[in-house]
Amino acid sequence: MLTYDAILIDADDTLLDFRAAEKNAISEVIGALGIADPQAGEVYSRINLACWKEFERGAMTQAELRVRRFGDFLKFYGISADPEEVGERFTDALSKQGMLLPGALEAVRAIAEKLPVALVTNGISSVQHGRIDRSPIRPYISALVISGEQGFQKPDPRMIFRALELLGSIEPGRALMAGDSLTSDVLAANRAGVDACWYNPSGEIAPAEYKIRYEIRDIRELPDIALAEKF
Asked: Which string of DSSP letters, residue by residue, matches 84-113?
């Protein structure tokens, strides 16, 4: 008998290469705006990260985030343009980026041979659907839970509960959530009562407040944990 009945996995920076996707998409936007600064991509990344942190704390809605990040970006460069239109161009470009991190396909495929896999991701619906549908992992995903479609986001445990429901009303104690973010993935798992596997490729030290059942450096380690026998 396996330890788990279902495996839940984060998408960005766990399976999907968000940095590469963002770089490609923002490069297209920067070119269209005529910005010559070679650091413009990094400027945007800092602004975007700050906005997403506010979003996770519930300090802004996703609709506000989509406009705010480009409003701040345009203001930084003194450009007079409609941040909503710029944001739409960016999200369209981002939705076409389906590249994966090394080992992601092998890991998901191995797990999906024996257990249902759900992706649980914070993001904009059209963007995440576009990227995941273009990636080679899509055939191995049994359920997809996107914050933009739910009205709440990780670390809200309802993201976990929704995934378990879609997979056939799996009990929290029989599921594992894997992801790279302590404040999003691990905390959501803790709040939902499911085991947490922290994907920690950089070897950071986690604060004691987080309950981490497993910690891995390489996503290819996940199948051995997910498919372990229960004794």
From this structure: HHHHHHHHHHHTT---B-TTHHHHHHHHHT
